[in-house]
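debug: dumping io for the single-chain case to check the tokenizer round-trip. Nothing else runs in this session.
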Amino acid sequence: MKLLLIEPNIEGRVGEPPFNIALLKSYIKEKSSHEAKILDLTFKKKNWRKAISEEMNSTDYDLVGITCLIFNFWQALSVAEFIKNNFGTKIMFGGVHPILAPEEVISNDCIDIVCIGEGEQTLLELLDNDLECENLAGIYYKKDGEIVKNSQRKLIEDLDALPFADWDDFDLKRYFKVNVNHMSIMASRGCPYNCTYCCSHALRKTLEGKWVRFRSAENVIEEVKYRIDRFYDKGLRFFQFNDDTFIADKKFAFKFCELYKKHGFHKKILWTANVRANLVDDDIIKEMKSAGCYEAGMGVESGDDYIRNKVYKRNMSMEQIMNAVNTIRKHGLQLHVPIILGAPYDTVEIMENNIKLAKKINAECTLFPVLMPLPKTEIRDICVKEGLIEDDNFQESHAMHTKPVMKTKYVGSKGVGKIVKKARRYLISKYFFEGLKLKGPFFLWDLFLFFVYYKPTLKLEIDNAWKFTIHKYNLARHQKERGIHNPLQ
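debug: decoded output
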């Protein structure tokens, strides 16, 4: 059978090429004789209908698979409606949003099948059975206009059995220009924590089987070698580990660092990973730094103890957070810190104090996302109880950093918007003066190049200016400090 997998990014930001469908394609290719291709719409935003039409007319596809989160569900739905109206092909949705809200997703006329769990085994079995859905675990589907709910499929426990992701259908050189030569990679699935705003705890309640699973360090190292062999000459210089908490299994983390250094990869490719303040200690950060880690992503989320620990259930003290910040700084790693604005019980004072906390931490990259109450999360239950959700469609969720979609119990959406603008002004000022400090007048020249060339050529948003200037300066500095051959210029 012939399968087309679509990345429906027709409005959103450009980051790393999507890992999930790259892995799905490789799984189908390795385990079967079915044909699978990926259509990435990220760089086809203006002409996405034309791109789809050309691809659909070139091959008689049996099934179209579309992946989505809540953030891009409406984009995915637009793509599905266009395909169904013009080609009539069967359409399957997968991803976090279809898993958490399968009935909402499949109720749309253009969607025939919804994957309600991990997709690899389900998709393969569906293709092997010529799209016969009866009794196939892991899906909802439609039969004679009625929704049929099949049983859940157990999670894949042995992640080493999965093949390496297939990136052949992505314009990697263009991605590398936008994301400063990064590729995403994952060492695990699942997270052991219960942060109320995150979909992880909701997924754990929905899915069956072992939730937190790590690949072996040896298996990850094999993929690292494969990626370097295949993509270094195309521009790969950095890995971004997308694991929720890279150091949740410290035995894995230490072993990975040991093997990464043993193979000499730390002298060629640097990397970034997410940590958690209560797990950070001197030994693990020192080992990560020596193995080529240049940045730690660490969620702070709120400077208010009640919001952070009672509302968000982060279960960490401000002392732990600042100790972790100091440890990470001590070993020369960058910090990537998100702080959420718009918690259900945020006041203006709490949100303004969050901006003050960001100034105190002074991370190389600070984000101020506005809270989004995701389906089946505990934070959503609180927001519903308090009547705080004003817009439940998230149709402009790609602009979530600047356009609040909800209010708090004490601050209206306009008030939250004012705080968001204040945070944004702080970041613009911070990055502007950092750029001048790092490069002087050359920073102004790089900014000019971004606005007159890179932004219109690559169809970027203003926020990408940071990556094309300060982030690139810092990356080049880290490479120079490590004696990296062929660094960024």
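debug: round-trip ok. The longest strand covers residues 2-7.
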